[in-house]
Design brief:
Order of helices and strands: EEEEEHEHEHEHHHEEHHEHEH
Strand order of the largest sheet: 3-4-6-5-7-8-11-12
CATH class of the largest domain: Alpha Beta
CATH architecture of the largest domain: 3-Layer(aba) Sandwich
Radius of gyration: 18 Å
Distance between the termini: 31 Å
Number of strands: 12
Number of domains: 2
Number of helices: 10
Shape: globular
Length: 299
């Protein structure tokens, strides 16, 4: 990571911009494959408070396999502009993604969606099945655990104030997520911290998302998932190969939900990542093996 003149951390991908229907400038990071290699592209959509930099390890790994990879900054996150609070909902995110695909000339893609990104992917499949070649749902399903919703609602949009140094930010990140990622080492904590914070005009570190992305706590979060429910998952799974990845310690994507998904779609691929909560980074060896198996069927 490098710090830009504006004080923002730059991802390792190539930046692109596109416009939303309400004229926001939206941002994504592109990880290009080797010249002359072109498989079905991959669109990666992050979780509720996350951004495209979460895919700075996954993106190059997939690109080396011949896929153009696009990591999306949803509106109000990363280097995308903030929107009105009422626009922070799956239907708007889907329209933003559809405009990105059109802008990039992509007619069909694989989608990797973490948490909210999986909700967006399922919502997209409900009305745009032809664009989905295959999908990976990272620690999300048609139902969410109450404990996970309560935990997310307890901190999302509230912030932690401004911090003076990266060491302070790293300590705060470790305290917040140490039970989620018990296997993390110092380098892991450094990466997730750099991908979670940005510098404000006073050179203080603040969380890198618009606090307005959530209004109303857990009920609002619940509606984000209820918007698609099982119908969205069934349509998504009918589009092509589908992989569900679950953190073994996850309180949001429960084991019983995964079992029901497999009962509804017996062809569903699945993997559970030990010693990880919500949500796997997709850099774990177990996640990479599951993704390799998925793409062996998808291509």
């Amino acid at each position: 990571m490098t710090v830009m003149a504006s004080g923002e951390l730059e991802g390792v991908g190539r930046s692109i911009l596109w416009a939303s229907a309400d004229r926001l400038k939206l941002h994504a990071l592109v990880y290009d494959p080797p010249a002359g290699v072109s498989k079905v592209p991959v669109v990666c959509i992050p979780g509720l408070t996350r951004n495209a930099r979460d895919f700075d390890d996954l993106g190059p790994w997939l690109a080396q396999q011949g896929r153009r990879v696009i990591g999306v900054d949803l509106r109000g996150r990363g280097r995308s502009q903030n929107g009105a609070a009422a626009t922070y909902r799956p239907a708007t995110y889907v329209d933003d993604v559809r405009r990105l695909l059109r802008d990039q000339g992509i007619e069909r893609a694989h989608f990797i969606g973490t948490s909210l990104g999986g909700v967006v992917t399922m919502t997209l499949a409900m009305g745009n099945r032809s664009v989905v070649a295959g999908a990976v749902l990272n620690d999300i399903g048609p139902e969410v655990g109450a404990a996970g919703l309560q935990r997310i609602a307890s901190y999302t949009g509230k912030g932690i104030g401004s911090l003076k140094s990266w060491s302070e930010a790293t300590a705060a990140t470790r305290e917040a997520y140490q039970t989620t990622f018990p296997r993390f080492g110092d380098e892991d904590w450094r990466k997730i911290t750099e991908r979670s914070f940005k510098l404000n005009e006073a050179s203080e570190l603040i969380l890198d998302y618009d606090p307005a992305i959530v209004r109303g706590g857990a009920p609002k979060l619940s509606r984000l998932v209820e918007h698609v429910l099982w119908r969205g998952f069934k349509r998504l799974a009918a589009c092509g190969p589908t992989l569900a990845i679950r953190g073994g310690l996850s309180d949001l994507f429960e084991q019983t939900t995964l079992a029901r998904m497999k009962a509804v779609r017996p062809t569903l691929m699945s993997a559970q990542i030990p010693d990880v909560g919500h949500a796997p980074t997709l850099n774990e060896p177990e996640s990479r093996r599951a993704l390799e198996a998925f793409f062996s069927l998808a291509d």
